[in-house]
Amino acid sequence: MALVAAVGLALWYVYSSRASALPAESSALDGEYRITVRSPAHSPAILEPSRFVVEIADRSGLPVQAEKLELKYWMPGMFCGMFTAEAGKTGQAGVYEAAVIPVMTGRWVMEARIEVGEKEIVVRHPFEAGRS
Fold this sequence. Notes:
Layout: H1 2-19, E1 25-29, E2 33-38, E3 50-58, E4 68-74, E5 82-85, E6 87-89, E7 95-100, E8 106-116, E9 119-129
Antiparallel strand pairs: 1-2, 2-3, 3-7, 4-5, 4-8, 6-7, 8-9
């Protein structure tokens, strides 16, 4: 009986997590700065680089350069590890992009940790990999 309940619970978790849509972008506003992390237009493929974008602006919308930008990503509840991505500047001020390479199909979390002035701002952005 416990085995049937466990299998039922596992199936419910898998199908309910597929049903809820994830946002295309996540933002944090600390009063002075707005940080946005944006997923690629299509679900990232497994073991292939996908382009994520990080934008930093002040409260009036003007671009701001980060003094430090760290990106890491992981699968919540899984033991596949924590990965880092290096963000590079683009041709636009305050806009960075990073290649992210997920190793498994499923839900992931991207965390951007940004230092601007004496402030540190953290944004967590959920995304799904390997789904078409």
